[in-house]
Design the sequence.
């Protein structure tokens, strides 16, 4: 069903990670967020790259607008009544762009966002050729972000891409500076081993940490339980669902164009009733009758 945004979703998420790590499947639309929720997700991550790919068919190279990102977030928050964290890229500009981004993303109903210290136009965090802004520039962005959130529990997570450019020590140094500037959590991107994740944890006692468990990148496959044992509060799987979906869709299109029928795919798809169950079609119909009687 459609819901008003959660009240204080950031606090709900903070309470959740007190007991164990929060596993956040990556979503890229309202429907994919709803599907994750229906399968039992307790929190969701909206990937800027996946949303860019899905909405525009373009790479994650800063072509998406803040309005496209915040509107996607708002629609996801209306159908998945659980805390949702969203990628907010570089904040779409300087400090005042960051301020507007925070206001719009919080208004969408999110539990929080993360901001990265890349030079715009940014690149995927697991690709080479990235550049990062100065620590001082990122600190200014974080101060502006914190200053413009209306709910103190709304999360401003600072992502640093320093690992692939300046090494793990610079990652840690920047993370410490970003916490001092007001970040509510740290997202160390592109780490290359469990030992590096452990080093960040040891250097930042008590600071909420987010791990990115993307595939085909710099980070080896690490389970949620392993991240929990390392002391991380959140783990995201940002583009996994999009990749799974795209592989299935491309294989179906190829077969359909070759055979001229979907007959071999009937058992591989959601039935009409199963789709209706996911989107609560019957509940909407029942509500229509209730409202009409009123």
Sequence:
């Amino acid at each position: 069903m459609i819901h008003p945004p959660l009240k204080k979703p950031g606090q709900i998420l903070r309470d959740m990670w007190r007991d164990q790590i929060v596993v956040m499947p990556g979503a890229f639309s309202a429907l994919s967020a709803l599907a994750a929720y229906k399968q039992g997700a307790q929190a969701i991550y909206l990937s800027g790259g996946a949303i860019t790919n899905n909405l525009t068919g373009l790479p994650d190279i800063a072509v998406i607008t803040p309005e496209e990102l915040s509107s996607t977030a708002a629609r996801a928050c209306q159908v998945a009544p659980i805390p949702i964290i969203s990628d907010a890229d570089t904040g779409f500009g300087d400090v005042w762009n960051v301020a507007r981004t925070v206001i719009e993303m919080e208004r969408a109903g999110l539990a929080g966002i993360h901001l990265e210290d890349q030079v715009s136009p940014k690149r995927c965090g697991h690709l080479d050729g990235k550049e990062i802004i100065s620590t001082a520039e990122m600190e200014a962005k974080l101060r502006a972000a914190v200053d413009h959130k209306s709910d103190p529990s709304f999360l401003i997570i600072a992502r640093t891409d320093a690992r692939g450019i300046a090494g793990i020590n610079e990652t840690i140094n920047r993370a410490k500076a970003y916490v001092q500037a007001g970040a509510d959590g740290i997202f160390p991107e592109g780490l290359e081993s469990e030992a590096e994740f452990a080093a960040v944890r040891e250097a930042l006692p008590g600071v909420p940490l987010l791990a990115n468990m993307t595939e085909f990148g710099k980070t080896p496959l690490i389970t949620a339980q392993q991240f929990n044992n390392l002391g991380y509060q959140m783990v995201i799987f940002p583009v996994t669902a999009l990749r799974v979906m795209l592989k299935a869709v491309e294989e179906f299109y190829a077969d359909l164009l070759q055979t001229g029928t979907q007959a071999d795919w009937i058992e591989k798809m959601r039935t009409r009733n199963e789709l209706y169950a996911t989107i609560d079609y019957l509940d909407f119909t029942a509500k229509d009758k209730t409202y009409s009687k009123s």
Q: What stands out?
A: The chain has 13 helices and eight strands. The chain has a mean pLDDT of 95. The CA atoms of residues 72 and 266 lie 30 Å apart. The radius of gyration is 20 Å.
